[in-house]
Amino acid sequence: QVQLVESGGGLVQAGGSLRLSCAASGRTFSIYAVGWFRQAPGKEREFVAGINWSGLRTYLADSVKGRFTISRDNAKNTVYLQMNSLKPEDTAVYYCAATIRGPFNIDYVRQIRAYDYWGQGTQVTVSS
Fold first, then answer.
1. Which of 7, 27, 34, 38 could form a disulfide bond with 79, CB atoms 3.0-4.6 angstroms apart?
2. Are 90 and 124 contacting, i.e. CB atoms less than 8 angstroms apart?
3. Is the pLDDT of residue 4 over 90?
């Protein structure tokens, strides 16, 4: 089993920044990749960013390219989502998820069904 705990959400004004953390514990050696997803009220959960467990390869959704970055701290088994230039449309509950399978390509990592473990989510609210 893998446990994921997100933190770092909050209320921020448009143009501001937040850094979300996803701390993994348990059988972390089995993790192949980690993804960040978000779900706004009344909308489907959508892919935001993904990173392989080595931290060497990443993907970002087009809607966040140039504003968000994903990274990993190997020593802490933690994946970060740095969010800059936030917009009101970024308001959502943000979830991290881990998959124990590949391949690590954009078609795979953006699929919700690819992931085996999910965190509880953290709320991000961007005011205009």
1. 34
2. yes
3. yes
